[in-house]
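Hi R.,

As promised on Friday, here is the backbone we talked about, encoded as structure tokens. Could you run it through your design pipeline when you get a chance and send me back a sequence?
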């Protein structure tokens, strides 16, 4: 699976009584689908995945995929503490035709999570996952930073295709890119303009665009109004591309620098509430306009620092509300923003309204 561009780490909307607000999830996914995002991550850290039980996780994955266009790459966060529970969620994601899964290290038995234990966890899940695996380095929430040397080893696994690095270190991004240069290359299916081809694009039925019954011109001329089977839509045109191990930035403040360091894209919490502003960094970089990319990067720096890094999920959800998405409440024990924090967030978002 090709992982290039900007991906939004989406929220999980809740009612005030903390039930999942599926209609709002549908509305958000529909709006993201009409953006220039490359895709969306469902049930990542921003999606409060650790707050959901298994059945809720399954339903969120189902609703999110049903509300998304086939052209968007969909990644499912599947991190669980045991290999078995993690693989089960990967199988659910495959059932709903997600394109890849995001896998953080387990965290509860931190004192026993040696490098060898974490290597075994990643390899065991990757051995059994029906979907390609993206590693997730998130030391802010998991007390284990995946060593670059271990990433280089795991990059040789046939079912581990990349990493989202949320350490915030461009040096680490650069080191990871360098360490995985010799990883086996893969051939992936892409569109004629080298964009990702998703599982749902390949599974789309061959029906006419309108879905209406087809009546031949001859029948119309003869006065016979008999519906016939519509001619099949042309098969999607594809080509192939060779790719290596793909490194994705997870820090909104370091997108441009990470792309320069060799990252193929970014999965960002900030893209949940300012997707266009995040995509514009990538587009300017693709156009080799370093000055514009820097300008676009600076545009989101303060909002990312305060809202994402400091206010966290409640701040991200409030920013979604302010920018026309649905954020709503976070699940307890997370607390909502104070009036002062809301005002501060609003002032930071004024220049990045979508």
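Update: got your reply. Pasting your designed sequence below so it's all in one thread:
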């Amino acid at each position: 699976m090709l992982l290039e561009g900007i991906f939004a780490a989406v929220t999980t909307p809740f009612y005030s009584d903390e039930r999942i607000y599926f209609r709002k999830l549908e509305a958000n996914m529909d709006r993201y689908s009409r953006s220039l995002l490359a895709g969306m991550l469902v049930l990542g850290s921003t999606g409060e995945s650790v707050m959901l039980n298994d059945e809720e996780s399954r339903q969120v994955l189902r609703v999110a995929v049903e509300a998304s266009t086939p052209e968007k790459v969909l990644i499912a966060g599947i991190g669980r503490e045991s290999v078995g529970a993690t693989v089960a969620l990967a199988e659910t994601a495959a059932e709903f035709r997600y394109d890849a899964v995001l896998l953080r290290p387990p965290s509860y038995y931190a004192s026993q999570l040696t490098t060898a234990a974490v290597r075994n966890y990643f390899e065991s899940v990757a051995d059994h996952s029906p979907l390609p695996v993206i590693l997730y380095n998130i030391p802010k929430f998991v007390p284990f930073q995946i060593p670059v040397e271990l990433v280089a080893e795991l990059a040789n696994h046939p079912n581990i295709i990349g990493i989202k690095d949320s350490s915030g270190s461009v040096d680490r991004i650069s080191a990871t890119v360098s360490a995985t240069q010799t990883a086996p290359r893969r051939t992936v299916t892409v569109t004629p303009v080298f964009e990702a081809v998703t599982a749902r694009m390949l599974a789309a039925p061959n029906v006419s665009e309108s879905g209406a019954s087809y009546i031949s011109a001859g029948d119309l001329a003869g006065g016979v109004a008999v519906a016939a089977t519509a001619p099949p839509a042309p098969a999607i045109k594809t080509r192939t591309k060779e790719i290596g191990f793909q490194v994705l930035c997870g820090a909104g403040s370091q997108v441009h620098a990470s792309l320069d360091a060799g990252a193929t894209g970014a999965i960002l919490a900030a893209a949940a509430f300012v997707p266009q502003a995040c995509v514009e960094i990538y587009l300017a970089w693709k156009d080799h306009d370093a000055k514009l990319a820097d300008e676009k990067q600076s545009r989101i720096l303060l909002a990312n620092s305060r809202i994402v890094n400091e206010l966290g999920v409640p701040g991200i959800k409030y920013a979604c509300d302010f920018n026309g998405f649905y954020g709503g409440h976070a699940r307890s024990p997370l607390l909502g923003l104070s009036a002062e924090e809301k005002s501060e967030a609003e002032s930071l978002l004024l220049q990045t309204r979508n």
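One thing I noticed while checking it: Residues 253 and 301 are 5 Å apart (CA to CA).

Thanks again,
M.
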